């Protein structure tokens, strides 16, 4: 018996391990012929509580290696809003010569004016830099029915009668997509647990495609460089934008600083005055101040003027030279587009990745 939410095998012995359901609850559910959810998924669905997961990075690598040894189609779901933060390190090495379909999800978050063709070309270039050569890159929004149908058609085309493994780091929308596929294929509603908490899909879950083959949803690996791991649960909304981002352009002079709530900071150290554009969740408070004194300003206003506040960690500085049309990416939180030559610094919580890349927009 497996949990219908996360796929873990149901057990009644160890409340800290995967798939736990108290014996009494299990008996009752069987007697009443109710859907079986483990306690963890039940809580998640009903109270949005979270229990720690037990899948280690090592387990995940083993799992990917196993997938790589089979002749199957691999579907890698990534988050367009957090592209580099949502790539699986060394995926190309682990999955060998398997066919790869890349699904870039959360299209709805990016400005509508960005053309899909340009976006796909950019994604292809970025993927190639990481050694990934997908057969195709599909841009989706998990909540858009037309995109889900297109994804199902592409899977059918590329799998050529083989099994399909869906892989991705946590929080890219993998469960939401799989749910949409199930709903589309069977009319069943939301059988798999989805949530805003990173790391909530456990163990493998299998959905039959025909007599012999299936779609297998694998657990997401936790990418520690993602901002989501350094936030309080109530602040996760800032790293999972729900709506189209409204970019904000600031005409900045050298020696000016932008704060993104209390979560990150951007310094324009030197260069000509220019319009720098911030792509962040619309609800994040962006505050402009002088570079000189910015650290004292942060200490004074963190949690009040500069909110949401950062907890239990500090901001670390990363300096970059930019020669034009570059994004400085705060992994999972957003990015600043720098159009011209400049020297800048990005401050993020210790452990979060920062990156310089060719401008997306
Ligand atoms: P998983 O960990 O990869 O299985 O991710 P989930 O399916 O649990 O989704 C993580 C978060 O992203 C949830 O808050 C979803 O509602 C949200 N999400 C998933 N797909 C999309 C999408 O296409 N657009 C937007 N804006 N949010 C999405």
From TrEMBL:
GO terms for molecular function: GTP binding. It comes from the Bacteria. InterPro entries: G_CP_dom (IPR030378), GTP-bd (IPR006073), GTP-bd_ribosome_bgen_YqeH (IPR019988), Mito_lipid_metab_GTPase (IPR050896), NOA1/YqeH-like_C (IPR048422), P-loop_NTPase (IPR027417). Residues 61-224 form the CP-type G domain. Signal peptide: none annotated. PROSITE patterns: G_CP (PS51721). This is Ribosome biogenesis GTPase YqeH.
């Amino acid at each position: 018996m497996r949990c219908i939410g996360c796929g873990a095998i149901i057990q009644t012995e160890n409340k800290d391990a995967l798939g736990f359901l108290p014996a009494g609850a299990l008996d009752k559910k069987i007697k009443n012929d109710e859907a079986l959810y483990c306690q963890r998924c039940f809580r998640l669905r009903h109270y949005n509580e979270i229990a720690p997961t037990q899948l280690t990075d090592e387990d995940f690598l083993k799992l990917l290696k196993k997938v790589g040894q089979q002749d199957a189609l691999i579907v890698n779901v990534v988050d367009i809003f957090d592209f580099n933060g949502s790539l699986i390190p060394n995926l190309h090495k682990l999955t060998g010569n398997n066919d790869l379909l890349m699904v870039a999800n959360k299209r709805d978050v990016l400005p509508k004016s960005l053309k899909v063709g340009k976006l796909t070309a950019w994604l292809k270039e970025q993927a190639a830099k990481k050694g990934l050569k997908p057969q195709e890159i599909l841009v989706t929004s998990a909540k858009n029915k037309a995109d889900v149908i297109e994804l199902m058609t592409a899977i059918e085309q590329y799998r050529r009668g083989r099994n399909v493994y869906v892989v991705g780091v946590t929080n890219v929308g993998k469960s939401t997509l799989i749910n949409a596929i199930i709903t589309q294929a069977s009319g069943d509603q939301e059988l798999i647990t989805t949530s805003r908490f990173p790391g909530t899909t456990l163990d493998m879950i299998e959905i039959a495609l025909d007599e012999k083959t299936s779609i297998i949803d694998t657990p997401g690996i936790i990418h520690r460089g993602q901002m989501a791991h350094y936030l309080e649960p109530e602040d996760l909304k800032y790293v999972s934008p729900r709506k189209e981002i409204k970019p904000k352009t600031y005409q900045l002079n050298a020696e000016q600083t932008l704060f993104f709530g209390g979560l990150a900071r951007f310094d324009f150290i030197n260069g000509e005055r220019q319009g720098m554009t911030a792509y962040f969740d619309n609800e994040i408070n962006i505050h402009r101040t002088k570079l000189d004194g910015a650290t004292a300003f942060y200490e004074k206003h963190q949690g009040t003027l500069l909110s949401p506040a950062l907890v239990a960690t500090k901001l670390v500085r990363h300096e970059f030279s930019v020669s034009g049309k570059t994004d400085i990416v705060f992994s999972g939180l957003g990015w600043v587009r720098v159009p011209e030559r400049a020297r800048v610094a990005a401050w993020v919580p210790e452990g979060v990745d920062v990156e310089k890349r060719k401008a997306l927009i």
